[in-house]
Amino acid sequence: MEDTNSHPETDTETAHSTVAAGVEEAEAIKSRFARAIDDAKANAQDLRSNAAEIAAAAREKAGSTANELTEQAGALAKQARDKSLDAVRVGKDKTSEAIASVGRAIGDTAPVIDEKLGVQYGDYARNAAGALETSAEKLAAKDIADLTQDVAAFVRKSPATALGLAAVTGFLLARLFSRSGERDA
User: Fold this and answer.
1) Could you tell me if residue 39 is inside a domain?
2) Which residues constitute the domain of residue 184?
3) Residue 46 scores a pLDDT above 80
Protein backbone atom coordinates (compact mmCIF):
# COMPACT_ATOMS: atom_id res chain seq x y z
CA MET A 1 0.00 0.00 0.00
CA GLU A 2 1.07 3.24 -0.83
CA ASP A 3 1.17 5.97 1.66
CA THR A 4 -1.14 8.87 0.73
CA ASN A 5 0.72 11.16 3.00
CA SER A 6 3.85 11.25 1.04
CA HIS A 7 5.79 13.74 3.06
CA PRO A 8 3.99 15.29 5.90
CA GLU A 9 6.89 17.46 6.88
CA THR A 10 7.21 18.86 3.41
CA ASP A 11 3.52 19.61 3.22
CA THR A 12 3.65 21.40 6.55
CA GLU A 13 6.64 23.41 5.48
CA THR A 14 4.96 24.29 2.22
CA ALA A 15 1.81 25.27 4.08
CA HIS A 16 3.85 27.37 6.51
CA SER A 17 5.73 29.08 3.74
CA THR A 18 2.49 29.69 1.84
CA VAL A 19 0.91 31.12 4.98
CA ALA A 20 4.02 33.18 5.69
CA ALA A 21 4.00 34.53 2.13
CA GLY A 22 0.30 35.33 2.49
CA VAL A 23 0.91 37.08 5.79
CA GLU A 24 3.79 39.06 4.29
CA GLU A 25 1.64 40.02 1.34
CA ALA A 26 -1.22 40.94 3.69
CA GLU A 27 1.18 43.05 5.77
CA ALA A 28 2.46 44.76 2.59
CA ILE A 29 -1.11 45.45 1.48
CA LYS A 30 -1.99 46.68 4.96
CA SER A 31 1.10 48.91 4.96
CA ARG A 32 0.24 50.33 1.50
CA PHE A 33 -3.36 50.87 2.61
CA ALA A 34 -2.20 52.67 5.79
CA ARG A 35 0.13 54.89 3.69
CA ALA A 36 -2.74 55.61 1.27
CA ILE A 37 -5.00 56.58 4.19
CA ASP A 38 -2.22 58.75 5.66
CA ASP A 39 -1.68 60.37 2.24
CA ALA A 40 -5.43 60.97 1.89
CA LYS A 41 -5.53 62.53 5.37
CA ALA A 42 -2.55 64.75 4.54
CA ASN A 43 -4.13 65.78 1.23
CA ALA A 44 -7.42 66.52 2.98
CA GLN A 45 -5.56 68.63 5.56
CA ASP A 46 -3.75 70.47 2.75
CA LEU A 47 -7.07 71.08 1.01
CA ARG A 48 -8.60 72.40 4.25
CA SER A 49 -5.71 74.76 4.86
CA ASN A 50 -5.74 75.91 1.21
CA ALA A 51 -9.48 76.47 1.41
CA ALA A 52 -9.04 78.43 4.66
CA GLU A 53 -6.32 80.58 3.06
CA ILE A 54 -8.46 81.21 -0.03
CA ALA A 55 -11.48 82.06 2.14
CA ALA A 56 -9.39 84.43 4.28
CA ALA A 57 -8.00 86.11 1.17
CA ALA A 58 -11.51 86.45 -0.27
CA ARG A 59 -12.81 87.94 3.01
CA GLU A 60 -9.90 90.37 3.09
CA LYS A 61 -10.45 91.37 -0.54
CA ALA A 62 -14.19 91.78 0.02
CA GLY A 63 -13.53 93.85 3.13
CA SER A 64 -11.07 96.13 1.35
CA THR A 65 -13.41 96.47 -1.63
CA ALA A 66 -16.29 97.33 0.69
CA ASN A 67 -14.12 99.91 2.45
CA GLU A 68 -13.09 101.44 -0.87
CA LEU A 69 -16.70 101.59 -2.06
CA THR A 70 -17.79 103.12 1.24
CA GLU A 71 -15.08 105.77 0.96
CA GLN A 72 -16.05 106.50 -2.66
CA ALA A 73 -19.73 106.75 -1.73
CA GLY A 74 -18.85 109.10 1.12
CA ALA A 75 -16.78 111.27 -1.22
CA LEU A 76 -19.59 111.34 -3.80
CA ALA A 77 -22.15 112.18 -1.12
CA LYS A 78 -19.93 115.04 0.09
CA GLN A 79 -19.56 116.33 -3.48
CA ALA A 80 -23.32 116.14 -4.01
CA ARG A 81 -23.96 117.91 -0.71
CA ASP A 82 -21.43 120.64 -1.58
CA LYS A 83 -22.91 121.13 -5.05
CA SER A 84 -26.45 121.26 -3.72
CA LEU A 85 -25.43 123.78 -1.06
CA ASP A 86 -23.76 125.88 -3.75
CA ALA A 87 -26.91 125.69 -5.86
CA VAL A 88 -29.03 126.71 -2.87
CA ARG A 89 -26.70 129.64 -2.15
CA VAL A 90 -26.86 130.78 -5.76
CA GLY A 91 -30.65 130.41 -5.76
CA LYS A 92 -30.89 132.35 -2.48
CA ASP A 93 -28.72 135.15 -3.87
CA LYS A 94 -30.69 135.32 -7.13
CA THR A 95 -34.00 135.30 -5.25
CA SER A 96 -32.77 138.07 -2.98
CA GLU A 97 -31.63 140.10 -5.98
CA ALA A 98 -34.95 139.52 -7.77
CA ILE A 99 -36.99 140.61 -4.73
CA ALA A 100 -34.80 143.70 -4.33
CA SER A 101 -35.16 144.43 -8.05
CA VAL A 102 -38.96 144.18 -7.85
CA GLY A 103 -38.88 146.44 -4.78
CA ARG A 104 -36.78 149.02 -6.63
CA ALA A 105 -39.08 148.84 -9.64
CA ILE A 106 -42.13 149.43 -7.45
CA GLY A 107 -40.31 152.24 -5.64
CA ASP A 108 -39.36 153.81 -8.99
CA THR A 109 -42.99 153.76 -10.11
CA ALA A 110 -44.23 155.40 -6.88
CA PRO A 111 -43.95 158.97 -8.27
CA VAL A 112 -45.98 157.96 -11.33
CA ILE A 113 -48.60 156.40 -9.04
CA ASP A 114 -48.61 159.65 -7.02
CA GLU A 115 -49.44 161.61 -10.15
CA LYS A 116 -52.01 159.24 -11.59
CA LEU A 117 -53.76 157.78 -8.53
CA GLY A 118 -52.76 160.00 -5.66
CA VAL A 119 -50.14 160.22 -2.94
CA GLN A 120 -51.93 157.67 -0.77
CA TYR A 121 -51.47 154.96 -3.42
CA GLY A 122 -47.91 156.13 -4.05
CA ASP A 123 -47.23 155.66 -0.33
CA TYR A 124 -48.62 152.12 -0.58
CA ALA A 125 -46.19 151.47 -3.42
CA ARG A 126 -43.26 152.98 -1.44
CA ASN A 127 -44.19 150.89 1.64
CA ALA A 128 -44.42 147.74 -0.50
CA ALA A 129 -41.06 148.59 -2.13
CA GLY A 130 -39.46 149.14 1.28
CA ALA A 131 -40.90 145.87 2.60
CA LEU A 132 -39.61 143.98 -0.43
CA GLU A 133 -36.14 145.52 -0.14
CA THR A 134 -36.05 144.76 3.60
CA SER A 135 -37.11 141.17 2.90
CA ALA A 136 -34.42 140.89 0.23
CA GLU A 137 -31.77 142.15 2.67
CA LYS A 138 -32.94 139.69 5.36
CA LEU A 139 -32.89 136.85 2.86
CA ALA A 140 -29.39 137.78 1.69
CA ALA A 141 -28.16 137.93 5.30
CA LYS A 142 -29.60 134.54 6.34
CA ASP A 143 -27.54 131.38 6.42
CA ILE A 144 -28.77 128.26 4.60
CA ALA A 145 -29.30 126.43 7.92
CA ASP A 146 -31.46 129.30 9.19
CA LEU A 147 -33.50 129.26 6.00
CA THR A 148 -33.99 125.51 6.29
CA GLN A 149 -35.28 125.91 9.83
CA ASP A 150 -37.58 128.77 8.75
CA VAL A 151 -39.00 126.70 5.89
CA ALA A 152 -39.52 123.69 8.17
CA ALA A 153 -41.31 125.87 10.72
CA PHE A 154 -43.49 127.39 7.99
CA VAL A 155 -44.42 123.96 6.63
CA ARG A 156 -45.30 122.72 10.13
CA LYS A 157 -47.36 125.87 10.78
CA SER A 158 -49.13 126.02 7.40
CA PRO A 159 -48.81 122.73 5.49
CA ALA A 160 -51.62 123.53 3.04
CA THR A 161 -50.09 126.90 2.11
CA ALA A 162 -46.66 125.29 1.76
CA LEU A 163 -48.10 122.61 -0.53
CA GLY A 164 -49.85 125.25 -2.63
CA LEU A 165 -46.66 127.33 -2.93
CA ALA A 166 -44.71 124.21 -3.91
CA ALA A 167 -47.28 123.37 -6.60
CA VAL A 168 -47.24 126.92 -8.00
CA THR A 169 -43.44 127.00 -7.95
CA GLY A 170 -43.25 123.62 -9.69
CA PHE A 171 -45.74 124.77 -12.32
CA LEU A 172 -43.78 127.99 -12.96
CA LEU A 173 -40.47 126.12 -13.18
CA ALA A 174 -41.99 123.59 -15.57
CA ARG A 175 -43.27 126.40 -17.77
CA LEU A 176 -39.93 128.18 -17.63
CA PHE A 177 -37.98 125.07 -18.59
CA SER A 178 -40.44 123.99 -21.27
CA ARG A 179 -40.21 127.40 -22.93
CA SER A 180 -36.43 127.46 -22.75
CA GLY A 181 -36.43 123.98 -24.33
CA GLU A 182 -38.64 125.24 -27.17
CA ARG A 183 -36.21 128.12 -27.83
CA ASP A 184 -33.24 125.77 -27.85
CA ALA A 185 -34.86 123.46 -30.43
Assistant:
1) no
2) 144-185
3) yes
